[in-house]
Amino acid sequence: MATKPHDISPDTTPGEFWDNFYGAEDRVWSGRPNAALVREAAGLTPGHALDLGCGEGADAIWLARQGWRVTAVDVSQVALDRGAGHAASEGVGDRVEWQPHDLSVSFPAGTFDLVSTHFLHSWLELPRERILRSAAAAVAPGGVLLITGHAGFPSWVTDPDPDVHFPTPEEVLTGLDLADGEWDVLVSGVHEEKVTDPEGNPATRTDNTVEVRRR
Ligand SMILES: C[S@@+](CC[C@H](N)C(=O)[O-])C[C@H]1O[C@@H](n2cnc3c(N)ncnc32)[C@H](O)[C@@H]1O
User: Fold this and answer.
1) Domain membership of residue 163 as a residue range
2) Mean pLDDT within 76-96
3) pLDDT exceeds cutoff 80 at 82
4) Is the pLDDT reported for residue 3 higher than 80?
5) Average pLDDT, whole number, for the chain?
6) Number of domains in the chain
7) 103-125: average pLDDT
8) Is residue 29 part of a domain?
9) Taken in order 30, 121, 112, 103, is the CA torsion positive or negative?
10) d(Cα 165, Cα 172) in Å, to the nearest integer?
11) Which residues, if any, are the signal sequence (predicted)?
12) Residue 1 has pLDDT above 90, yes or no
């Protein structure tokens, strides 16, 4: 996700772009759930979760293994099919529903006990703030919204694009436009994660997490 591809045609749709991205390799991500999800969701009572921009489904599968029913959403059918295959081979295929949505156009129906979205970033135009407001609207009373995003470029990027702005946790919270008195802020902060660079060497990445609970 670090370096912008140079050859994106202006006509490329998000579905085409992300299908090509995932189709280029048998597996793009590690298959491990995101650390912030494990940290923040481990203590929640399982119910129905929504994972927005689920990619190859590692988070959705982890949630399913913790006892959640999961609706997992992505614009890439290639990624969704891959996630469904992994879920079936891990014995949780019946606990995850994989829904294709271009979230700039449509949003899954229903309300959820946990709405979780990790690294919903794109090199194509993405109305992230609007999507995150829809995510908040989809949280059931007592439910939690968990958002993790990049707070900067990873340590191995030597020529960061100066035009890229990574929203701070405060900006994410402001963008959610939550109704006064209806939400508690559980987490709002920046944290460093230990990761590996594309060559497999130890590296760091700075992420931000916002977690809010609807009263
Ligand atoms: C950086 S990846 C993160 C994937 C996964 N959440 C993870 O942490 O491994 C961003 C994901 O957002 C999805 N995405 C990008 N634009 C989207 C859109 N308009 N609608 C739905 N999903 C989108 C991509 O297909 C991709 O799987």
Assistant:
1) 14-19+34-214
2) 98
3) yes
4) no
5) 94
6) 1
7) 96
8) no
9) negative
10) 12
11) none
12) no
Q: Is 44 in the pocket of ligand 1 (CB under 6 A)?
A: no
Residue 4 has pLDDT above 80, yes or no: no
Task: Report how far residue 64's alpha carbon sits from residue 70's, in angstroms, rounded to the nearest whole number.
Answer: 6
Query: Which CATH number is 178's domain given?
Result: 3.40.50.150
Residue 8 lies in a domain: no
Whether 55 and 81 have beta carbons less than 8 Å apart is answered as no
Q: Is 87 in the pocket of ligand 1 (CB under 6 A)?
A: no
More confident residue, 197 or 182: 182
Q: Assess contact for 81 and 113: CB atoms under 8 A.
A: no
**Residue whose C-alpha is closest to residue 106's, from 78, 123, 130, 124:** 130
Q: To test ligand 1's pocket by mutation, which of 22, 122, 130, 195 has the most ligand atoms within 8 angstroms of CB?
A: 122
Cα 79 to middle of ligand 1, angstroms? 9
Distance CA 75, CA 55 (A): 9
Q: How confident is the model at residue 6 (pLDDT cuts 50, 70, 90)?
A: low
Spacing, Cα 181 to ligand 1 middle (Å): 31
- Whether 39 is in a domain gets the answer yes
Ligand 1 site, residue 123, Cβ cutoff 6 A: no
Instruction: Please tell me the pTM assigned to this model.
Output: 0.94
Reported confidence tier of residue 52, pLDDT bands at 50, 70, 90: very high
* CA–CA separation, 95 and 92 (whole Å): 5
Tokens of 15: 């579905």
- The whole-angstrom separation of Cα 160 and Cα 149 is 17
CA 193/CA 139 separation, integer angstroms: 27
List beta partners, residue 8: none
